[in-house]
Specification:
- The complex is a heterodimer of chains A (145) and B (476).
- Chain A is 27% helix and 41% strand.
- In chain A, the strands form 2 sheets. In chain A, strands 1, 2, 3, 7, 8 and 9 form a 6-stranded antiparallel β-sheet that branches. Chain A has a 3-stranded antiparallel β-sheet with strand order 4-6-5, with helices on one face.
- In chain A, helix 1 packs parallel to helix 2.
- In chain B, a hairpin with a 2-residue loop joins strand 1 and strand 2.
- Chain B is globular.
- The two termini of chain B are 33 Å apart.
- The chains are: A alpha+beta (145), B alpha+beta (476).
- The interface between A and B is large, with 37 and 50 residues.
């Protein structure tokens, strides 16, 4: 499963025997983080079924890129579960010591979204934030479902 | 798995010799077929756990072991606090105290079959299941702390179930030493609307028929005979447990260096039991255990309401409640001395054998009921703890079938609607808010649970008592 945008930013899932690997790729680190978040949404439901009508502000802190990615994904998981929402679009900006972001989405509608599974947590398994030789960024990890 | 470097102890036990940084050997319980089918990552993870400070005896893997986070799923390891032993958030996992409880219904297959659809409908209405579902119970902050301290005892006092249920749960429904103050506000907030919810993924409530009895005497002691109908509930500590795992895994990774611990894999994150962080985690993790026990107790009450709609005369009695993601302080004999150890079971069930003082009197002669969930189309098992489990595995056995196929692959292969139809033609009614969820949990994505329990029995961990097959499955 995966999806591309015209700018070359994209997300995909990679296999894990019990759970699911999520991966975002983008021209910048910010874009890779936003795409990884799209891959996270897609574990739960088809992002195309989600209407981006409400905005939620997100914040994450981490001492390095990898821990920051976990914190960013954890913030989204927390927002999804406590607000009972799904998100169809994300924006991220890096600030000293962390990241600020925004997610656009709507309340879960079981009939329309057909949500498949809750995400329990983002994990250190296959966790990586790195740059390809061509300059694009990758952000990935396995999520526990 | 490449088994060339393993030493065969018996047909169902294999030693991983000490090498590198391993402090103790590894032991994997499985027959050769299961062993060869296991991921090589299991071997790597068994070795990594064997290298953790203060580990006692061996690093064990159960017959259903597969690639986990730091610890293998199906991993068992005990640590001595007086020998620098650690407690590991990765060794418990994100779904703290996920487990199974089974209830006797007093009904038979003949009673249930004509009303199966009505029963499936009632259970589906009463048990909140799936993404975005909320529970019927909404707690104030004080009530939440009370729940975290008192587990299923809180639930019974609040009107969810009977006092008799408590005698049939591990720790009598509440583990001591829970400290709600060590649980983050985020974790409590995540739980506020999730008390008494089933969750999603491999969690379920199943109406099952006792299909085969292997050990008539023990089955009779458990109140089971062929044709009886039981209800099994598989779920854990919900959002609270997931958040405790998230919070402490990160803290333990960041503090590892200051505790002098080198982590070969960050998911092995741990802290010395004797450290402030280790104690904080134990307080929080025990609150997570109590949350899971309370959750399964509330679900029991809701399931009783559902049964009462269809079978007003039915009385659902708890057979037992087991947890398979825990760390517990227990006394074990090691080399002739009794030691107090912190036993991690990650995807492994405690399997106390006959005579153990922690068992309710009615199970002293038989050993504890060990409840093993299979996939929704095949079968589940009820085992009894074997006397041999104490020396074999710190009294532990397997916990389920274990996946053999990724969710992505399962959805490529199967459509939810087809899976439901195929199961219905075999007499299994599936009710789920998510068709893709049903496809991801298709029976073909799981290992053969029968091979797993047979290996557990042959390895002396737990004896087969009965095999049950599903009639109705409520899937989150």
């Amino acid at each position: 499963m995966g999806n591309s945008s015209p700018a070359g930013a994209r997300w995909e899932h990679f296999p894990h025997v019990a759970d699911v690997g999520i991966r975002g790729i983008g021209a910048t680190r910010e874009e890779a983080f936003a795409q990884a978040a799209m891959a996270l949404t897609a574990v739960v439901a088809d992002p195309a079924s989600v209407v981006p009508r409400d905005t939620v502000e997100l914040a994450a802190e981490g001492p390095d890129d990898e821990l920051l990615l976990l914190a960013w994904l954890d913030a989204i998981i927390y927002a999804m579960t406590t607000r009972r929402m799904l998100f169809a679009r994300y924006e991220v900006a890096f600030v000293p010591g962390g990241a600020r972001g925004r997610a656009w989405g709507e309340a879960v509608d079981v009939a329309r979204h057909q949500p498949v599974v809750e995400v329990k947590a983002a994990t250190f398994a296959e966790l990586a934030v790195r740059r390809f030789p061509d300059g694009r960024w990758l952000a990935q990890c396995v999520v526990d479902v | 798995m490449d088994i060339s470097r393993l030493e065969k102890i018996s047909d169902h036990a294999w030693r991983v010799p000490r090498s590198g940084r391993m402090r103790v050997p590894g032991v994997i319980y499985a027959d050769e077929t299961l062993l060869r089918a296991m991921d090589d990552k299991v071997l790597e993870q068994v070795r990594n756990v064997a290298a953790l400070p203060g580990i006692v005896g061996a690093s064990y893997a159960m017959p259903d072991a597969h690639w986990g986070y730091g610890f293998p799923i199906g991993g068992v390891a005990a640590f001595d606090p007086e020998d620098g032993g650690v407690v590991s958030a990765g060794g418990v996992g994100f779904d703290i105290s996920c487990g199974v409880r089974t209830l006797l219904t007093g009904l038979t297959r003949a009673d249930v079959e004509p009303h199966k659809a009505a029963l499936a409908g009632a259970l589906y209405r009463h048990l909140p299941a799936g993404v975005g579902s909320t529970g019927r119970v909404h707690l104030s902050d004080d009530a939440m702390d009370d729940l975290l301290r008192r587990g299923a005892r809180w639930a019974v006092d609040a009107g969810y179930g009977d006092a008799a249920d408590l005698a049939r749960a591990e720790e009598q429904g509440a583990v001591a030493g829970a400290d709600p103050a060590k649980v983050s506000e985020l974790a409590k907030r995540r739980q506020r609307d999730e008390v008494g919810t089933l969750g999603s993924g491999n969690h379920y409530a199943e109406v099952q028929e006792v299909e085969t009895v292997f050990d008539a005497a023990t089955a009779a002691a458990f109140g089971l005979s062929a044709g009886d109908v039981v209800l099994s509930i598989h779920c854990g500590s919900r959002g609270l447990g997931h958040q405790i795992g998230t919070d402490y895994l990160k803290r333990m990774v960041l503090a590892a260096a200051q505790h002098g611990i080198t982590l070969p894999d960050r998911e092995l994150a741990c802290a010395p039991i004797a450290s402030a962080l280790g104690q904080d985690y134990l307080g929080a993790m025990r609150a997570g255990i109590n949350c899971a026990l309370a959750n399964r107790q509330v679900l029991t009450h809701l399931a009783r309401q559902a049964f009462a709609e269809v079978f007003p005369q039915a009385r659902l009695r708890l057979l037992y409640d087991v947890s398979h993601n825990t760390c517990k302080l227990e006394e074990h004999a090691v080399g002739g001395t009794r030691r107090r150890l912190y036993v991690h079971r990650k995807g492994a069930t405690r399997a106390l054998g006959p005579g153990h003082p922690a068992l309710p009197p009615e199970f002293r002669a038989t050993g504890q009921p060990v409840l093993i969930g299979g996939s929704m189309g095949t079968a589940s098992y009820i085992l009894a703890g074997d006397a041999g489990s104490e020396t074999a595995s710190f009294a532990s056995a397997c916990h389920g079938a274990g996946r053999t196929m990724s969710r992505t692959e399962a959805t490529r292969r199967w459509q939810g609607r087809d899976v439901m139809r195929a199961l219905e033609s075999q007499g299994v009614l599936v009710r789920s808010p998510s068709l893709r969820g049903v496809a991801e949990e298709a029976p073909g994505a799981y290992k053969d649970v029968s091979a797993v329990v047979e290996a557990s029995e042959r390895a002396g961990l737990a004896r087969r008592v009965a095999r049950v097959r599903p009639l109705v499955c409520i899937k989150g």
